Amino acid sequence: MIGSKGAVRAGLAVAAIAVTALLHAQMDTASAAEQGRIRVPDPEKAQLLALGFEPVIADYYWIQAVQTVGGVESDPDRNAQVHELVELVTTLDPWVDHPYRFAALWLTGSVDEVRQANAILEKGIAYHPTDWRNRFYLGYNHFFYLEDNQRAADVLESALHFPEAPAYLGAFVTRLRAAADSLDTAAIFLQQLIRETEDEFERAEYLKAFDEIETERRARILDQARQAFRERHGRDIERPDELWAGPLRVIRVMPPAHPHFEGFAWEFAETGEIVSSFYGTRYRVHVHMQDERRRRKWREDEHAIPEEATQT
Amino acid sequence: MNVGCIAAIAANTVRESVRSKLLYGLVFFAVLLISAGAILSSLSYVEGHRILQDVGMGAVRFFGVAIAILVGINLIHREVDRRTVYTILSKPLSRGDFLLGKWAGLVVTLWIQVAIMGAAFVVVSLSTGAPLGASHAAFFVLTGFELALVVAVATLFSAFTTPVLAAFFTSGIWVVGHLTRDLRDIGASSGLPMVESTTWLLHRVLPDLESFNVASEAAHLLPLTTADWTLPMLYGTAYAVVVLMAAVAIFERRDLR
What is the pLDDT of residue A36? Predict the structure, then answer.
C-alpha cells in the first residue's frame, strides 16, 4: 500500500516530469547545422586546445560539414562554412582522405571559392603525395573554372604515373597541352608517353591521339587557307573543297583527312569549323554542352561582381 | 630497494584497485563509448572505419587518464587516512619500497584496464570490418607508457599533498604535457630570445606527453619506424624513474603523523 506521503511524492515526480517535458517541447531544439550557425573555431587555436584528441575533434567537425551540405540548401553562407569546417578538419587531422575532395566538390561558387578549394587540395597532395585523385581535382579546377590549361596540364601530368590513375589522363593532358601551348608541345608530350608506357592498350590509345594531332595540324592549315580565301575574295567558302579546287582556290592540293586511312574528306561541322569526316570534331578538350552552359553562367556571375568588390 | 617487498605491495594495490567501483564505472563507460563509435561513424558517408577507431582510441586515452588521475591521487592519502600505512611501514621495508610498490600496483591495474579497453576496441573493429595494424598495437603500448608516467606524477603529488590538490596538479601536468611542443613553437616564433629559451626549457623539463600519442597514425594505418615507438617508451621509463626518485625523496622526509 502506498501511503499519502508516497502518493504526494509520486504526484510531484509526475508533475516534475510533465513540466520538464513541456518546457523541452517549447524549446528550439534544431541542431546548430540545421540553423546554419555552427561555431567553427580557429584551426590553430583548436589544434592547441585539442590536447592530443585532434582526430576525434576533426571527426566531429567533419560530420558537421556533411550535415551543413545536406542541410539548408539556400543558405548563402553555406560554402563559406564548408570551407571553414574543412580547413579546420584538415588542420586537425591532415591525413584525412575524402574531405580534401569534398571541399573541391562544393567550393565552386566563385573564383575565390575555387582558389580556397585549390589551397585545400594542395594540402591534400602534400599529405597524400601518391594519390592521383587530389591532383586530378586540382587540375580539373584549373582547367574548368580558372581556365588555366597550362597549370591544369602540369598538375594532371604529375598524376599520370600514380597507381590507379585512369588511362584517359594522358590523352586529356595532351589535349590540354595542345590548347595551352601548341600542337608541337602536345606531340612531344605524346611521344614521351608512348615511349614510357608499358601497357599496349595505352600505347594504342596514344598512337590514335597522335593521328588526331596530325589531322588537327592539317585542319589548322585549312583554317589559315580559309582566312586567306576570305581576305582575297571577300566572302567565306561555301564548301571546304573550294579551298583547293576550282578557280578561286588558295591551296594547290587537299591535305589528307587522316594520316593513314583513305576515303575520308574535309567537311563542315555544325559549328561551321572544317573537320575531318573521320573524327567529326576538332582536336581540343571537349566540354559537355551542359557543363559549358554552367561554366558560362559562372563566368557571367563572376563578371557581374562590381570591380570594387573583387578588389577587396 | 627490496624487489620482493615492492612486488608484495604492488600485488596488494592491484587487489585493492580491482575492488574499486569507480574503476569499473570508468571502464564500463569507456567500452560503451568505444561501441558507440559504430553509431557515430555511420553519420559520415565516407571514412566510417577511421571515425570509429578515432572515437575508440580517444575513449581509451580519455578514460585511461581519468583512471590514472582519480585512482593515483588517493594512493598514499588513503593509507595515511586509514592509518594502515603505520602497520605497513612497521614491517622491514623502506618508505621508498612502499611508494614504488603502490605505483607499480596501479600501473599494472591500469595496464589491465587498457587491455580490457583494447580488447573491446579490437572486437568492435573486427565486427565492423575496420582494419587493424601494427600501429594500433603501438598506440596501446604507448598509451600504457603514458599512463605509467601520469601515475608517477600523481604518485609524486600524492606523496606530499591532499588528493584534491594532487588531482589538480596532475591534471595540470597532463594538460601542459600535451602543450609543450606548441609552447616551444610559439616561443620560437615570438622573436624574443627570453621567451624562446623559456619555452624551450619548459619543453625539455616538462613531460612531452604528445610523444606517446600515435592515435592519428594508427587510425590512418601510417607506418611507424622502430624509433617512433621505442624512443617514447625509453623516454617515458626514464622520466618516470626521475619523478619516482623525487617522490621517494619527498615521501621519506614526510611527517606521517
Answer: 61
